[in-house]
Amino acid sequence: MKSQNIFLTKKNIVKLGDFGIARVLSNTRSKAKTVVGTPYYLSPEIIESQPYSFKSDIWSLGVLLYEMCALCPPFNAGSLHQLAQKIIKGQFDRLPKNYSTQMNQLVASML
After folding, report:
1. Which domains can be identified in the chain, with CATH numbers?
2. Helix (H, G, I), strand (E, B) or coil at 11
3. Closest among 14, 12, 81 to 3, alpha carbons compared
4. pLDDT, tens only, 21-55
5. Taking a C-beta distance cutoff of 8 angstroms, is the pair 46, 36 a contact?
6. Hey, how many other C-beta atoms are within 10 angstroms of the C-beta on 10?
7. How far is CA 36 from CA 18, 62, 71, in A?
8. What is the pLDDT of residues 7-21, one digit of tens each?
9. With contact defined as beta carbons under 8 Å apart, do 62 and 105 qualify?
């Protein structure tokens, strides 16, 4: 789940989709066998090559919620390696001050 995969129709209906991987798979006629994802949304489990579970989906939703509130991702770095380290450590700035303690707690529990 990432912000680029959320679409709003003319009738204000939210739809989810992922055209990036669909395009790749239709061109290669193969199945996805490797980790595919936008680095900002990768969970610590995926980075550490652990099995994928619903926890990774909750993580990406937490990243998305943080991004919607703060207008930037919770983890940012100058390189992929540094980004992976920040995600694994799970350290991120609190949301802007206009968000409640409960919203901060929700995001923290998802991340």
Report:
1. 3-110 (1.10.510.10)
2. coil
3. 14
4. 554 444 444 444 444 457 888 889 989 988 888 88
5. no
6. 5
7. 12, 18, 24
8. 888 999 988 877 665
9. no
